[in-house]
Amino acid sequence: MNKRSGNIKFPTAWWARKVFFFDRKEVKDLISYLATIENPQADEYLLRILNTPPRGISELTSHLAIDWSREHGNSVWAALQDEEIPGGPFHPRPQQRAGIQ
Predict the structure, then answer these.
(1) Which end of the chain is more exposed for a tag (fewer CB within 10 A), N or C?
(2) Neighbour count for residue 10 (Cβ, 10 Å)
(3) Are 43 and 76 spatial neighbours (Cβ–Cβ below 8 Å)?
(4) Is the pLDDT confidence value at 58 over 60?
(5) What is the dihedral of CA 82, 88, 90, 96, to 10 degrees?
(6) Nearest to 30 by CA among 17, 21, 43, 20
(7) How far, in Å, CA of 1 to CA of 101, rounded?
(8) The pLDDT value given to residue 17
(9) Residue 96: which pLDDT band, with cuts at 50, 70 and 90?
(10) pTM passes above 0.70
């Protein structure tokens, strides 16, 4: 058979098929949770777990928080706690506060 015809199957190395432990989504999420607990100012970890599991934090809210943090030179965590961001996840609107009480 001609090697260029594509009819020959080459063996795949065993390590090419494995999903390594630290490459799993669950492990990366767990590491992100622990890193965020240790240092809430680390934006890369916070953004990974911001809506994992789904918490109802919209994509618009996360983009507003990222933009605010860039403008003010602060972290996304500080942006999410700021009341200037409309509909921030930690600050319900007054109509929602009335329903909570």
Answers:
(1) C
(2) 6
(3) yes
(4) yes
(5) 130
(6) 21
(7) 77
(8) 61
(9) very low
(10) no
Residue type at 29 in one-letter notation: D
Place of tokens 């996304």: 76
Distance CA 85, CA 101 (A): 23
Q: Give SS3 for 22.
A: helix
Residue scoring higher pLDDT (98 or 75): 75
Q: Which two tokens stand for residue 53?
A: 């599991």
Q: Which of 31, 20, 32, 11 is nearest to 77 (CA)?
A: 32
Cα–Cα distance between 32 and 69 in angstroms, integer?
Answer: 19
The distance between the two most distant Cα atoms of the chain, rounded to a whole number of Å, is: 77
Q: What is the DSSP string of 29-64?
A: HHHHHHHHHH-TT-HHHHHHHTTSS--S--HHHHHH
* Number of separate helices (H) and strands (E) present in the chain: 6, 0
Give Cβ neighbours of residue 58 (< 8 Å, ≥ 6 apart): 87
* Residue matched to tokens 């260029």: 4
